[in-house]
């Protein structure tokens, strides 16, 4: 059996027990300590040898973690279990559970709350693992985190990423946590193992027994830096700042995010605000507040919360209960929510946004189309009202005519009455025939023959096209064929333009769906040159014409076209209410 390369390069004490049987060999590994001498990431993906099939570890926590496992090739004849050595006291954490799961290629999924702060057992274990890496991988030097080599930071990130599913953008938060834990580690060494023994050189001659992995040369240099006069001055300044803190919390490692997660489970349906978190963070395990100053502020918070619930006091924005009790917030931070959360994020303050040229152009086009649509809708409503009034007039005239006829029928009898009725009906029919004839003559006056388009005021290019139709297409009975790309209507198709379509268009006649489709294709080409096709979409006129099935069929076709978009386009489609012979456009904003 071959072990991965990094096992041979560490100071880990491996106790291997082989139990040969016919079908399986069981290996029991005991992890004692992670060494700082690992030259490469213990969770490197380039491990040599075959991966071992492992038994899943037992989770002792009441909360179950979610895992993401990778499909690694395993030996079916071998299983591996890793057992932790029993240890007394808190001691130094080595996170054997994380090592176990890395070998099994099981990665706990780190969960986050609504503000992007990590919560849950997986997050707690990840933070402990980051602490192990920060202590063992980063040299113990008197430098700032920014001066640490990038390859060391990259090793820490890769190790965490192989052990946990951190999520998008998690690298910065992991390295920030590593920086803080490295700084806290140096502070712990200074406060517990150096400053109390400034007069005992023998105690300071060797690294602490708990942290044997620290090299003696690094320890000696670190002790010398902490006993210098420069550090004494810095330490004194920080001690004075620390003394000014009035309201100390007792959150330990879980932080405000972990506390909020606990309260949401124990207090379901109750809104957890900052004031509740601030107060609970300063209680001991029995629910008491030992600090008198904090207890006084807690009473004020309770009273304000009661007044808010009764409607006597109103809260808005950053002026909430905690601000009323403790005073205004300091710029750039928010109390009782943890680090890394700005006032703008927590209180949902408006953020000034820079609008690009494309966005401004899109907004302008949307406003223009909305105004045009309103005009068309107003015109359609006006025409509908006019038709309604005309219909009422016709109904009233018919009613009066009926009453007159009834009156005459009552006054006259016999054959004379019948003759009069016939004569009157004949006159009515003659009047209707004359009216229809006049309408036809008026309509005929407006029709322009095929050869009369030269008399119409039109661009020279349109007249040239009409001459081509008259001299070439009509004599040879040809048609014009266009290919419409898939990106325009959602499907590729051919359009055929007849000579009559062109002459009707030139003569300002009512045009068909094919002419509208060709016009849309030209408009699409213009938008394509301007890189604006992502802003404007088109709906095929053939799918919404009266010949395309029922209204329900046309509605389904339009809905299907809109569903194939990204939701940011303005759509154009032919619109004809049936009252006018012009073709207009209305738009659909799928958003």
UniProtKB/TrEMBL annotation:
Compositional bias segments (type: Basic residues): 402-414
Annotated Basic and acidic residues bias: 38-53, 415-429
Annotated spans, Disordered: 31-96, 397-445
UniProt protein name: Non-ATPase subunit 9
InterPro entries named in the record: Probable_transposase_24
Family annotation (Pfam families): Transposase_24 (PF03004)
Residue ranges with Polar residues bias: 73-83
Annotated Acidic residues bias: 430-442
């Amino acid at each position: 059996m071959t072990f991965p390369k990094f096992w041979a390069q560490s100071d880990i004490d491996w106790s291997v027990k082989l139990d040969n049987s016919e079908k399986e060999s069981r290996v029991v590994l005991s992890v004692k300590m992670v060494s700082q001498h690992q030259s490469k990431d213990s969770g490197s993906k380039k491990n040599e040898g075959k991966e071992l099939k492992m038994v899943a570890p037992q989770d002792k926590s009441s909360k179950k973690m979610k895992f993401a496992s990778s499909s690694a090739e395993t030996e079916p004849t071998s299983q591996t279990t890793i057992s932790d050595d029993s240890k007394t006291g808190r001691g130094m954490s080595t996170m054997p559970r994380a090592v176990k799961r890395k070998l099994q290629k099981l990665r706990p999924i780190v969960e986050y709350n609504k503000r992007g702060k990590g919560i849950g057992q997986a997050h707690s274990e990840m933070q402990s693992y980051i602490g192990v890496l920060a202590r063992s991988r980063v040299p113990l030097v008197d430098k700032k985190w920014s001066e640490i080599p990038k390859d060391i930071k990259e090793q820490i990130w890769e190790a965490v990423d192989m052990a946990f599913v951190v999520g998008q953008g998690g690298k910065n938060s992991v390295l920030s946590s590593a920086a803080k834990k490295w700084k806290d580690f140096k502070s712990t060494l200074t406060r517990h193992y150096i400053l109390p023994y400034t007069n005992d050189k023998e105690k300071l001659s060797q690294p602490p027994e708990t942290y044997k992995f620290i090299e003696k040369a690094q320890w000696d240099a670190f002790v010398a830096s902490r006993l210098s006069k420069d550090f004494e001055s810095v330490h004194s300044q920080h001690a004075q700042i620390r003394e000014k803190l009035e309201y100390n919390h007792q959150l330990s490692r879980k932080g405000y995010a972990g506390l909020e997660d606990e309260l949401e489970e124990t207090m379901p349906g109750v809104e957890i605000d900052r004031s509740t978190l601030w107060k609970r963070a300063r209680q001991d395990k029995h629910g008491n507040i030992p600090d008198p100053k904090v207890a006084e502020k807690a009473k004020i918070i309770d009273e304000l919360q009661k007044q808010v619930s009764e409607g006597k006091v109103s809260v808005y924005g950053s002026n909430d209960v905690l601000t009323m009790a403790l005073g205004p917030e300091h710029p750039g931070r928010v109390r009782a929510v943890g680090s890394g959360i700005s006032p703008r994020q927590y209180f949902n303050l408006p953020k000034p946004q820079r609008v690009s040229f494309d966005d401004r152009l899109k907004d302008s086009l949307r406003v223009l189309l909305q105004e045009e649509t309103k005009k068309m809708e107003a015109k359609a409503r006006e025409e509908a009202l006019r038709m309604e009034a005309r219909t009422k007039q016709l109904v009233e005239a018919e009613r009066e005519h009926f009453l007159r006829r009834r009156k005459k029928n009552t006054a006259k009898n016999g054959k004379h009455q019948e003759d009069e009725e016939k004569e009157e009906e004949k006159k009515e029919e003659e009047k209707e025939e004359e009216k229809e004839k006049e309408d036809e003559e008026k309509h005929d006056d407006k029709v322009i023959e095929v050869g009369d388009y030269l008399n119409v005021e039109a661009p020279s290019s349109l007249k040239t096209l009409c001459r081509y139709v008259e001299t070439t297409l009509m004599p040879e009975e040809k048609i014009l064929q266009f290919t419409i790309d898939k990106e325009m209507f959602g499907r590729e198709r051919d359009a055929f333009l007849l000579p009559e379509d062109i002459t009707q268009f030139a003569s300002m006649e009512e045009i068909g769906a094919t002419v509208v489709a060709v016009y849309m294709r030209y408009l699409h080409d213009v938008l394509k040159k301007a890189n604006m096709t992502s802003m404007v979409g088109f709906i095929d006129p053939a799918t919404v014409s009266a010949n395309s099935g029922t209204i329900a069929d046309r509605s389904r076709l339009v809905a299907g076209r809109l569903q194939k978009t990204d939701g940011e386009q303005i759509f154009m489609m032919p619109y004809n209410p049936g009252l006018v012979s012009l073709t207009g456009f209305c738009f659909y904003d799928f958003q």
